[in-house]
Amino acid sequence: MRDAVQEQKQQVRRRLRASRSQLSPQEIARRGLMLRDALQAHINPQAVVAGYVPLPGEPDVMPFLHAHSGLYGTVYLPMIDSTGSRQLRWGWWNPGIALQPGALIPVLEPADDCPVSLAELAADAAQLHLDAPDPWRSPLLPEPTDPPAQLVILVPALAIDTNGARMGQGGGFYDTTLAGLDHLIAEHPGLGCEVIAVVHSGEVLDPGSFPVEDHDLRVSRAATEYRVFAL
């Protein structure tokens, strides 16, 4: 049975990857600027953001990460443990920090010799107080969420369904790393945390469009090039 589910997932992944392969670099870049605006309208400029470096065809979150780092925000990028652990660690990043291929898979990572755990990210973010208004915020942008989240985790996905199920690339890194997130949040009662799956607008699918297993990550919010919205 599990083998059949995995084969169904792979079929869906192949279809989604084929669709992404039709997007030109210019279209990816155009959508990346729209995504930047959508995320900036939602995320507090002082928040800690755990982002990612997109693979070819993925929604380009880098324009947002550049903008967020250039204001008040803190940005971390995932780093894969060279031991083969599926628990991601997080390296601090700004536009002046070099990116380099990871040790295990060809994903770019920050050149950080001392990455932190998700627990450490949560503890640091819990110390933030984001109540002060932002004097530099453009009046053209809507107000961010209230109360604002101190920690925002942007999660890459091939697709999501409208019930919040996520179709990942198959590595299991985010499923494993975020499995204990609720426990971490409970340890810091003042911590506001959002997990946002990032997809192209055509990758928000109906429930049942792909198989969902118990260990698969669920999210309560998604971002496309048009908007950030609850699921």
TrEMBL record:
Stated family: Belongs to the 5-formyltetrahydrofolate cyclo-ligase family.
Record key words, sorted: ATP-binding, Nucleotide-binding
Protein's name according to its UniProt entry: 5-formyltetrahydrofolate cyclo-ligase
Classification via PANTHER family: 5-FORMYLTETRAHYDROFOLATE CYCLO-LIGASE, ATPASE INHIBITOR/5-FORMYLTETRAHYDROFOLATE CYCLO-LIGASE
Region annotation Disordered: where it falls in the sequence: 1-23
SUPFAM superfamilies: NagB/RpiA/CoA transferase-like
InterPro entries registered for this protein in UniProt: FTHF_cligase (IPR002698), FTHF_cligase-like_sf (IPR024185), NagB/RpiA_transferase-like (IPR037171)
Pfam families linked: 5-FTHF_cyc-lig
Domain of life of the source: Bacteria
